[in-house]
């Protein structure tokens, strides 16, 4: 078993981005700037936003945190989006998800100018990604691609099973890995990835275990601890665990610990490569957000 060390690869990417930003500065150009909009006080969201702002600081990207109370109206949030769309000092921005129940997430996402949509979630960017056109790709799928590429894991002709059908992870990673590689996107070191045969599974899929046992690569993004167990995988499988679940743990200082969607202990011995949680896909997601911010700056 080999670990796919997202923590290390993400640090490598941040170092590369830092060089790029240093070069811009040395050329007397302005520094890229990201804005992060956060609504309410979900503790997990606070942590994620802090991770993003800290990563910006490390690479020299300017970051603005724009916080709103839980009670903000959809219209006020739409106005904030319009303001950021029209602010020439902002290269890219994200609206941290999930949003409170009373706000229509898709209305907010659709209002974001696709050129500043560094989360890659607007209909424009999703459509362009599906068509293999230059686009800002959703950060987690971009990170997964980057991780596979940097470990020289090929996908041509491979059977990739994706568990989870979200707009943020499941759907876009399936599209990207199925794509013809010559249609792949600029700024990605992942140009050889693609050409996979992809099966997308979800909570209503029958015979999930049988399908998984035919997979060369399994990407689990279901949000369910220990969903993938050893009996569901064959020897030599590559496993990408996108799950970030908090489980109670009285021995941990915070009272919880993070686990993925994979029963790591039983699956890892059978896997050729596997991502840990924490330290796998999560840090790659943050690094990809920074890459997207540089991409938006240059376009
Ligand atoms: C790590 C996210 C679910 C819903 C909304 C590093 C992150 C997580 C883990 C992180 C996530 C998950 C983010 C680790 C951002 C990834 O060391 O393993 C970083 O900050 N993430 C998010 O912004 O929104 C989410 C998961």
Write the SSE topology.
Elements (H helix, E strand, L loop, with lengths): L1 E2 L2 H21 L6 E7 L3 H17 L2 E7 L5 H13 L5 E4 L9 H7 L11 H8 L8 H12 L8 E5 L6 H9 L18 E5 L6 H5 L4 E4 L16 E5 L3 E4 L7 E4 L4 H4 L3 E4 L6 H18 L1
Parallel strand pairs: 1-11, 2-3, 2-4, 5-6, 5-7, 7-8, 8-11
Antiparallel strand pairs: 9-10
Polypeptide structure, described:
This protein is of the alpha/beta class and about 300 residues long. Helix content is about 40%, strand content about 15%. It is built from ten helices and eleven strands. A six-stranded parallel sheet has the order 1-11-8-7-5-6. Strand 5 (about 160-165), helix 7 (about 170-180) and strand 6 (about 195-200) form a beta-alpha-beta unit. Helix 6 crosses helix 7 (about 170-180). The longest helix has 21 residues, at about 5-25. The chain is globular, with a radius of gyration of 19 Å. The termini are far apart. The mean pLDDT is about 95. The structure holds ligand BQF. The site of ligand BQF has 11 residues, from helix 2 and helix 10.
């Amino acid at each position: 078993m080999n670990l796919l060390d997202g923590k290390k690869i993400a640090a490598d990417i941040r170092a590369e981005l830092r060089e790029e930003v240093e070069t811009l500065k040395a050329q007397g150009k302005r520094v890229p700037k990201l804005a992060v909009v956060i609504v309410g006080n979900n503790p997990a969201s606070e942590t994620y936003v802090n991770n993003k702002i800290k990563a910006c600081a490390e690479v020299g990207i300017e970051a603005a945190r724009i916080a709103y109370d839980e009670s903000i109206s959809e219209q006020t949030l739409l106005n904030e989006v319009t303001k950021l769309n029209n602010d020439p000092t902002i290269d890219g921005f994200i609206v941290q998800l999930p949003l409170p129940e009373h706000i229509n997430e898709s209305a907010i996402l659709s209002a974001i100018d696709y050129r500043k949509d560094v989360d890659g979630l607007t209909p424009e960017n999703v459509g362009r990604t599906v068509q293999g056109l230059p686009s800002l790709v959703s950060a987690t799928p971009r990170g997964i691609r980057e991780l596979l590429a940097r470990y020289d894991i090929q996908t041509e002709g491979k059977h990739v099973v994706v568990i989870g059908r979200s707009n943020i992870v499941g759907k876009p990673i399936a599209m990207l890995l199925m794509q013809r590689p010559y249609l792949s996107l600029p700024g990605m070191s992942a140009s050889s990835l693609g050409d996979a045969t992809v099966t997308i599974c979800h909570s209503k899929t029958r015979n999930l275990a049988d399908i998984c046992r035919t997979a060369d690569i399994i990407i689990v993004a279901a949000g369910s601890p220990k969903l993938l167990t050893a009996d569901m995988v064959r020897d030599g499988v590559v496993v990408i665990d996108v799950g970030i679940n908090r489980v109670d743990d009285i021995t941990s200082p915070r009272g919880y610990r993070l686990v993925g969607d994979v029963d790591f202990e039983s699956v890892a011995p059978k896997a050729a490569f596997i991502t840990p949680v924490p330290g796998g896909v999560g840090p790659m997601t943050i690094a990809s957000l920074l890459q997207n911010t540089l991409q938006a700056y240059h376009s």
